[in-house]
Amino acid sequence: MPPISFREAVIVWWRIGLLSFGGPAGQIALMHRIIVEEKGWLDEARFLHALNYCMLLPGPEAQQLATYIGWLLHGVRGGLVAGLLFILPGAAAILALSWLYVLLGNLTLVEGLFFGLKAAVLAIVVQALLRIAARTLQGPLKPALAVIAFLALFAFNLPFPLVIIGAGFVGYLGARFLPTIPDTLTAADLAVTVRPGTRFAALACLLLWAGTVGGLYAVLGAENVFAQLSGFFSKMAVITFGGAYAVLAYVAQQGVEHYQWLQPGEMLNGLAMAETTPGPLILVTQFVGFLAGLRESSTQPSLLAATAGALLTLWVTFLPCFLWIFAGAPYVEKLRGNRALAAALAAITAAVVGVIANLALWFALNALFTEQHRFTGYGLDLLLPRLPSVNLPLLAISLIAFTLAFVLKMRMLPLLGACAAMGMGWTLLVASIG
């Protein structure tokens, strides 16, 4: 590997952070193009080796891949810079949009902007579902796991962590009792490398994370909104295998139905913000923390509390990502040699497809229908729409969005722009008539 100056690396990571649109698939492709093809800092095998490890972790795999590569090139400082610069542009943009949403959200053009973006988000989520399913669901077992996971969540309302753990257990048993595949890894493949300061960095991340959550609960109490935000999003950081699309169903369910920090339509607005800005899609949690701090904190002024809620959510969501890399990256080759673990994680990946399908349907029901009801009986717990409450203008824009995405193959940013324009046009028309 040729020597790489730290200054040049910082410039490249800024560039990647500013251009990281398109969700994890687009972000990983961007890093591959710049790091492997353009700069030649890593070869193909080393890049995929890092990616495979990040796919096994909870949290945003693209951000963790940036952290891993930064650590590989320049140690702890490289990992910190790469991971932070991947997050900061999008985090700053979403914080600014959150302020605008609260201050101007009742104005016609802003309402129309988010009205149209909801339609584009529905198409983007379905598109992501189909792409991930095509890559993931090979053989008879994986499609079955995806269907079972979808039914467990949508039809029976089982807890998300239970579904993921169950899928991993099935994969583990399959690896134990099915015929084994010969191991092709060599001793060189399983070598362990520890960069200086890595263990200390992992310990520092752990202490900062635990100190934040424990301190808030000790000082403010379990009922305080900031303590609840730190605890909930810390738990999410531990169990969120499968990327942002998979965990958003869990965040939406808890944030809307349990904590009542926001409304279903607002969750879609936050997702639209994250889709239109660079960085990981999981930055939508910053918008959730912003609204939670705005509405439930007794601190004045409320926008200051909202900003604190957003920054706290950002801190406890992404600090564990650095912990996972600094604690595990030196030993990733050993994990690759564990066949049972690999099979368990492959099963979880299959189940995640069902989780994303549940997310897509949940968003569609809450966006396209203003009223829903729960059907319970025969062991079922279904969220069903009230058909007369259908939002016909949004349905029409959604159909156009699906046509643009699937028939005309429009890219994500033009799709978002077209739908936003249609939404603003519709709301201005309604306002002029009214």
Describe the structure.
The chain is mainly alpha-helical and 434 residues long. Helices cover 75% and strands 3% of the residues. It contains 17 helices and two strands. It has helices spanning 6-19, 23-38, 44-55, 61-104, 108-136, 141-154, 160-177, 198-220, 225-239, 244-258, 264-276, 284-296, 302-328, 332-336, 339-368, 392-407, 412-433, and strands spanning 372-377, 380-385. Strands 1-2 form a two-stranded antiparallel ribbon. Helix 5 packs across helix 16 (392-407), helix 8 runs antiparallel to helix 13 and helix 9 (225-239) runs parallel beside helix 13 (302-328). Mean pLDDT is 84; it is low at 180-192.
Topology diagram in text:
Layout (H helix, E strand, L loop, with lengths): L5 H14 L3 H16 L5 H12 L5 H44 L3 H29 L4 H14 L5 H18 L20 H23 L4 H15 L4 H15 L5 H13 L7 H13 L5 H27 L3 H5 L2 H30 L3 E6 L2 E6 L6 H16 L4 H22 L1
Antiparallel strand pairs: 1-2
Helix pairs in contact: 1-4, 2-4, 3-4, 4-12, 4-13, 5-11, 5-15, 5-16, 5-17, 6-7, 6-15, 7-15, 8-9, 8-13, 9-12, 9-13, 10-15, 11-12, 12-13, 16-17
